[in-house]
Design brief:
Low-confidence stretches: 86-120
Distance between the termini: 15 Å
Shape: elongated
Number of helices: 1
Radius of gyration: 17 Å
Strand order of the largest sheet: 3-4-5
Structural class: alpha+beta
Mean pLDDT: 74
Number of strands: 10
Strand content: 25-35%
Amino acid sequence: RTSGKVRLLMRREQILKICANHYITPDMKLIPNAASDKSLLWHAVDYADEMAKPEQLAIRFKTADEAKLFKNKFEEAQKLSEKLVVFESSQKSFLTVEEKLVTDSSEQKVGDAGFGLQGAKKEGMWKCSTCSAVYESSVTVCSSCSTPD
């Protein structure tokens, strides 16, 4: 199944432990580290430890050219994510994936962190077993971690 989202999955070089696992979103800012042209910093809601947690992430490359290539691919992924702003209008759809959940009769704010409805589970709703986000029953896949209902 193709969702159109781009996920960054990074492992430690020798032990292969996951150290970054998150979607690349248009609002992320990839900034160069002040100390080196070979390293970059950004913030994301990361799932490397299987629990959603806001993190500041950093990556260092052997050469400045490798860092530039990573930055270009990261920005390319952000542009793809911008095109994914509106899903099928026949279903409940997300506008700006982390801001609003549009329902047939009303709009409900989702919040800045992008965690579903961020409230208690109500009748006709389901709670994601991975990240605990709460969704309308018509939404079949968690927008935070892509876990199906």
